[in-house]
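User: I'm curious whether this sequence folds into something compact or stays loose and floppy. Could you predict its structure so I can see for myself?
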Amino acid sequence: FYGIISLISSIFQLSRTQEWYLISFAQNMLIFFSGILMYLTFRQVSSKKIGLVVTSAIIAYILFIKLGNSLRCETICLFLYSVIVYSVTTIYLKNKKLGPRLFLFHTVLFSGAFSLLVCSRITPIILFPGVCFLLWESQNNERRKIFFHLSTGILFLLVFGSMTANVYRFGRFEMTDKTGHHLWNAIYSNRNELLKDSPLWRMVREENEKKIRPNYMCWFIQTKNTQKRTGLTKDKILLELAKEAFFNHPIKYLATGIGKYRKNGLILGIKRYGSFTVNASKKDDIPAPLFNLELLEVISNYLLIKMKYLFPIVVVSTLVFLM
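Assistant: Here's the prediction. I'll summarize afterward.
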């Protein structure tokens, strides 16, 4: 996605700031089409009015956190999830009313979106057995075979292709070259308790404690000396630390992950992702117009009239539509 944007920018010789605005525009378009797919899905399982209200509330929340303004792939994942839910809902509810061509179309649509989602976030793979189980009772034997074989085949081809491409890009046959970084970020807040008996962690901690204000996030943690002593890359070091934490203290590991989600996710507070900078110390790397109070943020705040008014508006709108 971002590669395509970069290619367009290079063709039209856009400046870096213009390229970031183009990324923001493209991501907001993904949110727009996600909203349409959400509405079409809700309309199948409920009334048009309820579907419109629920979809509007979800999109309003997404606009409020300004997800479309951030350099995160969550907007892509949102769109892919919307495609998946829409296609599965259509296959499940319409059943025999769905002709062979439309059934094949929605199966391919689901398979492509689901495979891309797995390539982006490996965890959705756990949803695949549930989807197959959901459609098992509603479809005849022939359609079961078509759905299972086609979706499994496309999933295998795209995932295998992605991992093969990473051999060329990173020299490793895996989904990402940052596995260790992602796993480390889940536990670094409780690192001393989870890794108190780890010799590798003692080496890393000694290296970082030399700094005045050490930062243990995956992007900032220092491992150069440890890399020289162990011969491992930074990602491999973080991966080994995360594995030690999991196998030595699995319950605490999971509790730390859940606690991190409660602190940083949607349970305890609302983050405005589009307001965050990647590296505030390097202002030249972050085009100010995309992150500061500019046109996109003004529109977002105008539409929502501040968060404290959002829920009353949703409630009143719901009552009006249901009257």
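Summary: The radius of gyration is 23 Å. The mean pLDDT is 76.
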